[in-house]
Task: inverse folding
């Protein structure tokens, strides 16, 4: 490297800190042999690479609902509540990094013993709640028991069902005893925010947590506002003075809010108008395909979906490739009725492929005696952007295959309260999970609160327990492969597509790495973004 190049590299670092003017930097770059255009571009890149403190970040998110709550046990963990009440407000013992690995968060370290039946977490020193009180092991204990104690209504109950006991060993050590070995337990605990203990339980009502921002106002389904936590234990996170999370369920309204500067960031862009959005020189489009998937769900305990031949006929009655191309414009990977994303360890692609096959559909419906059955499918774009268009295109495919698919357009408002888990056949969305065990335990275990299909397969549940404690990866892979095949063959899931996460933000913002776990990483939008 030449002397000029060394000086230029040093100047770029100084420019990022605001200590070199554009003029001086450009002159130095010209002397190093760069063109004026390249010099200016390098200066802008250097300046934008360094986070700037201050300002107000405004985030426009979908999936807000009037029933949203500060209680993490009752929250649906939508993009709105996940971003506002988890990533912005809270921390857990662990977190999932941008590469999909589990790393310490409020914990300083975690170690297994007794075949991963016992896990010991050491708390990070210096972490405090928003009211200034030090986080202790007792706070962690009651935060966990909030979800798995007798009589709890928490949606995370099944996730923590394996926890036989959790105790404090002094102020800085938490010990978990599981009913069986679980090598993935640190992943699971990343979904449990730590809250302050109070007499008789845990204080979730106040909104006092440990995160980079402190709650100012929370209007369910409307807005959540926050102010910077000056005592946050991560000095390199939390750059804004203030954060506003706005629930804007309508994608057109979200897009308009971004275009007009009402918000700096929006999730779940409308793919049909993405080209128009790209024409705005002040915006940046981010896209990655990860764990999330758009699905249609059949309740296998209600007729006609209690017949496996009917379920399989439904799975063969849609042309997924055409839907992905026409509705999602190719943004995503075609699903094959398996909820485990290809990037997750132990993922397989069950066979046969559930491709569009009118002859197979007719044969299966005839076998089930359901040739003249009307199938009512409830949809709204509140489930996922494109849910209605996908269903209408599917209706055409089904009709050509001899299936009477009746698409019921439900209101976006209240969809998650009035349709989800209430109707026998409906559109839904999963952000996905970073391990097979977590995804299966959350959505497909017999007693899982979020078991949308109400599918209860004894062999599947037997394997679910056995795979957790298996230390041989080859054997574990075989167990998870069989489980994915069982779901594919017998379950009530129609996995349309592993969606691409297409978000947009103003160029005034910069951010860290975007990876396949972006929805989970995205819960920490306010922590990991900054004004450039």
Result:
């Amino acid at each position: 490297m030449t002397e000029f190049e060394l000086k230029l590299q040093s100047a770029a670092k100084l420019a990022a800190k605001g200590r070199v003017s554009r003029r001086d930097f450009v002159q130095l770059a010209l002397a190093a042999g760069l063109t004026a255009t390249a010099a200016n571009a390098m200066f802008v890149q250097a300046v934008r690479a360094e986070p700037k403190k201050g300002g107000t970040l405004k985030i426009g998110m979908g999936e807000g609902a009037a029933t949203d709550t500060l209680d993490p046990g009752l929250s649906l963990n939508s993009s709105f509540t996940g971003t506002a009440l988890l990533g912005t407000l809270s921390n857990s013992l662990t977190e999932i990094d941008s590469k999909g690995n589990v790393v310490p968060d409020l914990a300083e370290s975690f170690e297994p013993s007794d075949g991963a039946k016992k896990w010991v977490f050491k708390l990070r020193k210096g972490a405090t709640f928003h009211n200034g009180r030090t986080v202790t092991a007792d706070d962690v204990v009651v935060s966990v028991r909030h979800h798995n104690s007798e009589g709890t209504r928490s949606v995370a109950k099944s996730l923590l069902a394996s926890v036989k006991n959790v105790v404090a060993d002094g102020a800085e050590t938490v010990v978990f005893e599981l009913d069986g070995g679980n090598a993935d337990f640190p992943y699971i605990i990343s979904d449990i925010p730590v809250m302050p203990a109070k007499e008789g339980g845990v204080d979730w009502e106040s909104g006092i947590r440990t995160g980079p921002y402190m709650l100012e106002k929370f209007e369910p389904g409307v807005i959540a506002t926050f102010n910077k936590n000056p005592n946050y234990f991560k000095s390199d996170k939390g750059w804004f003075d203030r954060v506003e999370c706005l629930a804007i369920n309508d994608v057109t309204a979200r897009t308009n809010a971004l275009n007009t500067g009402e918000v700096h960031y929006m999730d779940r862009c409308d793919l049909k108008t993405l080209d128009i959005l790209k024409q705005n020189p002040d915006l940046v489009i981010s896209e990655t395909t990860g764990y999330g998937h758009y699905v249609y769900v059949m309740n296998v305990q209600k007729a006609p979906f209690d017949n496996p031949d009917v379920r399989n006929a439904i799975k063969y009655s849609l042309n997924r490739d055409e839907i992905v191309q026409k509705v999602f414009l190719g943004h995503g990977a075609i699903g094959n009725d398996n909820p485990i994303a290809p990037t997750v360890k132990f993922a397989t692609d069950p066979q046969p492929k559930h491709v569009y096959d009118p002859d197979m559909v007719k044969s299966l419906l005839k076998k089930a005696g359901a040739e003249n059955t009307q199938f009512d499918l409830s949809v709204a774009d509140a489930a996922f952007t494109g849910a209605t268009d996908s269903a209408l295109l599917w209706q055409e495919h089904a009709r050509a295959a001899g299936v009477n698919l009746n698409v019921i357009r439900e209101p976006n408002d209240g969809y998650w309260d009035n349709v989800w888990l209430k109707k026998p056949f409906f559109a839904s969305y999963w952000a996905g999970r970073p391990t097979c065990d977590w995804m299966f335990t959350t959505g497909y275990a017999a007693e899982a609160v979020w078991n949308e299909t109400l599918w209860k397969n004894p062999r599947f549940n037997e394997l679910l327990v056995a795979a957790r404690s298996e230390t041989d990866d080859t054997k574990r892979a075989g167990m998870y492969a069989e489980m994915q095949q069982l779901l594919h063959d017998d379950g009530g899931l129609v996995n349309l597509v592993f969606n691409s996460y297409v978000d947009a933000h103003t160029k005034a913002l910069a951010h860290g790495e975007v990876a396949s776990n972006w929805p989970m990483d995205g819960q920490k939008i306010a922590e990991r973004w900054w004004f450039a």
Summary: Residues 3-49 form one domain. The chain has four domains: 3-49, 90-202, 212-282+507-531, 290-500. The chain has 18 helices and 21 strands.
